[in-house]
Structure to design on (396 residues):
């Protein structure tokens, strides 16, 4: 890449390390950034660094936040006795967007994956157990419907059910608006198993 | 987005302004950046700012470079009497990768587009005319094969041919490895018109 100067080369390399950014995308982004006004670029860089510096895990639910305790955990209107367990802050955000859940969350910051060498001690499971020493009405497991998510759900369920805590799992089934003919067999089977009376 | 703290929100917004980065991708990138070690994030931010600060147009060919005159223009082994006109530095890089061109370039930094309100004065055309006051053997027009690229090629050709300078256009045709059955009609027609004797 002698035809690019070292500054462009470094920028393309750095951007290319981001997830989902291939070398073509990295080039496109790099040239876009170079074409922006200098103030805009400085603002972008500042925002990146300040987000990284100020964000850490909420000491209660372990979602990413810039406060000690996140807005959801510190909201007295939320029902602290119903805890929804999710894999990460994006999943928490997805449920918050529904506006239909008034309990609190526990963010695992990952899922158990023997393939990737991620065990129960690598996610915020101990922290969940500590929270469950307080009285809790229900733990809703909302990990993804992937192999890792299901494994994690089973593991958590086995761990906390013996303590007499009600554990539920969000439903698997046909997505709303989904056309049966395009839905995979496992999902169809789950939808059948999880049928409810009308 | 109350469930994200303002630092994450700002980061997602800034990243979402980059071309081709939608809100989902911006979220994914933001959370990735937050998960990186602080030094890595600082390096990314530094690279972004320093690329923007140190890059400007080569004063001869107008490609983006961190020197006053880019490595290609200052290379005595290149034939300065053959100038290839391209739209941008990425196109220059694409031709450099072939290793088959030993002339020099002229980077227009755009193409004429009446749709986008980009006229001949908005690209580095005056600068090309200045260069053509020195003796030149050939001007190869290698703008894209798009409407804008073709318009620009025609415009340049009409402008400089009267001065008795040899002007050529890179060939349009079937890409190497291309299957005729999937090639559009205009390209097939061009390939026919541009046929060469074997």
């Amino acid at each position: 890449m002698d035809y690019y100067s070292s500054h462009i080369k470094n920028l393309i390399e750095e951007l290319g390390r981001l997830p989902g950014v291939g070398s073509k995308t990295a080039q496109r982004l790099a040239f876009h950034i170079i074409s922006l006004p200098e103030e805009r670029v400085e603002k972008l860089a500042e925002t990146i660094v300040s987000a990284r510096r100020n964000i850490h895990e909420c000491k209660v639910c372990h979602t990413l936040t810039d406060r000690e305790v996140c807005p959801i955990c510190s909201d007295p209107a939320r029902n602290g006795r119903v805890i929804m367990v999710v894999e990460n802050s994006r999943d928490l955000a997805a449920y918050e967007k529904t506006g239909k859940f008034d309990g609190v969350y526990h963010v695992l910051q990952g899922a158990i994956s023997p393939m990737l060498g991620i065990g129960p001690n690598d996610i915020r499971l101990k922290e969940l157990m500590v929270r469950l020493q307080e009285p809790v009405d229900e733990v809703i497991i909302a990990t993804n419907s992937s192999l890792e998510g299901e494994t994690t759900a089973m593991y958590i369920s086995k761990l906390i059910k013996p303590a007499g805590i009600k554990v539920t799992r969000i439903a698997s089934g046909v997505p709303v608006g989904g056309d049966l003919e395009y839905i995979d067999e496992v999902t169809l089977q789950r939808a059948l198993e999880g049928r409810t009376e009308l």
User: Anything to note?
Assistant: Chain B touches chain A through 55 residues (CB under 8 Å).
